[in-house]
Structure to design on (597 residues):
């Protein structure tokens, strides 16, 4: 029945305690118990009191082999089983192999001196057994004391091991918590770096949008300048047409002069009668000449005013150039300062990396990889920003060159217009002087031909009226041209003001970006300080823990050395006691009496 029961328990995984007290187990039962101990992994307590297992040597040896192969049983009760010194030797061999048994009860058996020595010797290799009961086995008190001391040593060792395991578990938990904190800090740093990248990308987009706006404004200015050039070409064409008309009028005047000379001989007699009328006409002509001279003076004053306005515009353009140069210089200085700050931040960051590399090589490798990647990205961004800055400087230089060229063209066009106006005025004055000369000559000649030239004078008056109308049209055209010039000047002033406002807005945006970059740098510095503080705290904690571990290791070494010394002393004492007992037994009268018998 026991065999069947134990065979069923071999595959059981729920039974943890088995009590077979007083069942008269024999060899078959002992063999079944050995098989159970080899296969079962759940039983922790086994009670075999009052079964006389020691009487069956083969079965008990099989049971001991199963006990040596088991690593799960913690309590074994073998009281009153008639175990002798041979069975104790088998148990000692099993205990050398077993590493889980903590309590063994061998009271009221027949172990004797040899069995006690065998069990004492096995305790040198077994370090898990905490309790060994040997009362009622005829074991000497010295061996019992030695067994108790060994049990005490095992208990101390196990308590120390449990404490060290607990401390190691606590330290592992702390290390894991520190690792989690570091990972969190690293993730926070990565998040801040990503945010900085997003902000830098946004700033790049904003700068690209602003550059596109500036390009659009420049294109609008170019279109405006092209329209002004077209208008100037139109005015030049109108002036050329007016010059052709003046030339045609001069030819007509020459033809009239020839006709007058031909008709002067014929109408000499008629001119004598019309002397008085000629004198009146001369007065009128003189009045007309005085009015024309006054008009010429007015035109000269207007030209002077135009020259003054041109000078004022030139001064304004010069001031705008100075403002542009100042703004470019300020931008360059700011770029240089930003580069220097970036270099300083890079140096500080490299120093912090070198400090972190001295702590642990593994963590520094990971951190250096991430930081090198971030540095490369930052360098790429810096290069991109420098390229954008260079492009902006090139665009500013192009704008300056275009402004200079446009200014030169405008000045040349103004000079051409002034020269043309002066030439026209000079030509008109020359024509008027020639007319005056001709009129004086014709007056002398017309005194003889006044009567004959009445009809011709009427035709000349009609032509003079036409010329006056044409002169009025030319004056109107000049006024229109002056109005166009004034409107162009106003447009130029408005455009210059717009450019100034746009530049001021750009400077304000750049200052805002600079402040944002400074805030980001301050955040980076604060994060670096936090990293340094955390790294220093981590170093101190690691140093403290390493010191505690070293102290614990030294204590363990000292205790192991004490245990080894105690073992050696106990072995020496046991050998001395054994020799003394043997000498006592051999030299005692009981031994001599037994030898005589």
């Amino acid at each position: 029945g026991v065999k069947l029961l134990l065979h069923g328990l071999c595959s059981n995984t729920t039974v943890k305690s088995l009590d077979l007290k007083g069942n008269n187990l024999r060899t078959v039962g002992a063999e079944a118990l050995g098989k159970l101990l080899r296969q079962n992994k759940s039983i922790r307590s086994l009670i075999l009191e009052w079964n006389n297992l020691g009487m069956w040597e083969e079965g008990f040896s099989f049971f001991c082999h199963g006990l040596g192969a088991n690593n799960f049983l913690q309590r074994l009760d073998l009281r009153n089983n008639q175990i002798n010194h041979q069975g104790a030797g088998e148990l000692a061999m099993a205990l050398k192999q077993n590493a889980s048994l903590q309590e063994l009860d061998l009271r009221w058996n027949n172990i004797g001196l040899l069995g006690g020595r065998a069990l004492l010797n096995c305790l040198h290799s077994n370090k898990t057994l905490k309790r060994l009961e040997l009362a009622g086995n005829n074991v000497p008190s010295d061996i019992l004391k030695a067994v108790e001391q060994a049990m005490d040593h095992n208990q101390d060792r196990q308590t120390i091991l449990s404490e060290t395991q607990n401390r190691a578990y606590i330290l592992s938990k702390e290390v894991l918590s520190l690792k989690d904190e570091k990972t969190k800090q690293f993730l926070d740093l990565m998040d801040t770096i990503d945010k900085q990248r997003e902000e830098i990308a946004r700033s790049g987009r904003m700068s690209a949008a602003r550059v596109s706006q500036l390009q659009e404004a420049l294109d609008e200015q170019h279109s405006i300048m092209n329209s002004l050039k077209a208008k100037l070409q139109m005015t030049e064409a109108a002036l050329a047409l007016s010059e052709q008309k003046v030339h045609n009028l001069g030819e007509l005047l020459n033809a009239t002069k020839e006709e007058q000379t031909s008709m002067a001989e014929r109408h000499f007699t008629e001119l004598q009668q019309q002397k008085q009328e000629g004198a009146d006409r001369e007065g009128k002509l003189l009045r007309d000449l005085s009015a024309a001279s006054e008009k010429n003076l007015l035109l000269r004053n207007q030209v002077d005013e135009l020259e003054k306005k041109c000078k004022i515009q030139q001064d304004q353009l010069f001031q705008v150039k100075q403002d542009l140069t100042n703004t470019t210089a300020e931008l360059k200085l700011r770029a240089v300062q930003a580069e220097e700050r970036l270099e300083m931040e890079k140096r500080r960051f490299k120093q912090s990396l070198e400090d972190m590399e001295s702590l642990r090589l593994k963590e520094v490798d990971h951190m250096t990889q991430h930081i090198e990647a971030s540095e490369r990205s930052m360098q790429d961004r810096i290069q991109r920003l420098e390229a954008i800055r260079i492009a902006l400087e090139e665009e500013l230089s192009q704008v300056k060159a275009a402004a200079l060229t446009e200014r030169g063209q405008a000045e040349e066009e103004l000079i051409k217009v002034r020269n043309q106006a002066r030439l026209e005025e000079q030509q008109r004055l020359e024509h008027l002087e020639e007319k005056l000369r001709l009129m004086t000559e014709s007056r002398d000649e017309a005194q003889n031909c006044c009567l004959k030239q009445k009809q011709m004078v009427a035709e000349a008056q009609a032509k003079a009226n036409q010329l006056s109308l044409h002169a009025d049209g030319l004056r109107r055209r000049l006024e229109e041209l002056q109005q166009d010039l004034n409107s162009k000047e106003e447009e130029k002033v408005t455009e210059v003001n717009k450019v100034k406002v746009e530049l001021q807005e750009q400077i304000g945006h750049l200052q805002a970006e600079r402040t944002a970059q400074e805030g980001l740098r301050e955040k980076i510095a604060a994060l670096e300080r936090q990293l340094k503080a955390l790294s220093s705290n981590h170093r101190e904690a690691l140093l403290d823990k390493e010191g505690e571990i070293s102290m614990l290791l030294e204590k363990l070494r000292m205790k192991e050395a004490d245990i080894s010394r105690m073992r050696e002393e106990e072995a020496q004492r046991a050998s001395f006691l054994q020799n003394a007992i043997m000498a006592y037994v051999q030299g005692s009268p009981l031994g001599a009496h037994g030898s005589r018998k």
About this structure: The radius of gyration is 62 Å.
